[in-house]
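Protocol step 4 of 6: structure prediction from sequence.
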Amino acid sequence: MCLFFLVSTCAKQKQDTENAFKVGYSSNLLSQLDRNTLKDIFQEKGLSHISLFFEELDKFNSCYTKDTNMSDWIKTDKLIYNEVACVNEYDKHFTGFDGNCRLTTYLLMHDLIHIQKPKTEHGNYLMFDIDVLETNPEYATLLPYKDYFVTLFDEISVTDTDNIDRLFSDKWNECGMNIKSDDVSIISLVIYDEYEKVVFVGHTGILIDMKDFYIFVEKIAFKMPYQMSIFSSKQELIDMFSKRSEYFSNDEQEVGPYIYENEILLHTF
């Protein structure tokens, strides 16, 4: 009986390992094994505030119910959250806002980002992000670096729509921003608001080059899950974004959105 249990356990562990980090699949990191594996990768790649990231992830995952549609290792195009259930479960357990995509990305990339000329003023699109920095004690460690956060993610005024695709890259160059890593980069989905005449980072996450595959880590939104997705190419990442209707309007004349890797334009929709 003991031998049967040992063989079954080993087989289960082998299956878990084979299923984990599989191209075309995503996870909300409910599994301790997957969290430990990702933590080791973060440490190897020199990411920042790793313990705080996993504390925040575990805090959110404590809200897990089947109704939220959170999962471990499901095909990426099949992972569709019940947003109402996610928010309701979060509000049952916690008050105020947690981190969003931008706060999570900056948390992890803090030590790898170099900015020569940080900005001090921010526009309306970062209003809730700044409120979390200033009021949520769990993000207090980032408050002294608010100007760097603002520089990275603040909106950019648009005066010439013919040059929209260059504005984000120009800001990186003007502010002297660069990432001190060959393996980790910031993916930014930049959206044009034709009414306010600005472009802003509507979504962001970190991309880790594992040589044989890519890992993309993101926080979907305030009060929404953390997600890790595995891709064989950057094009597959772009394809995932193309299926998220929340990034697109119904206006046939819409400009963009744009996807950047650091300051480099990867794709225009």
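Step 5 (inspection) to follow. Residues 1-19 have pLDDT under 50 and may be disordered.
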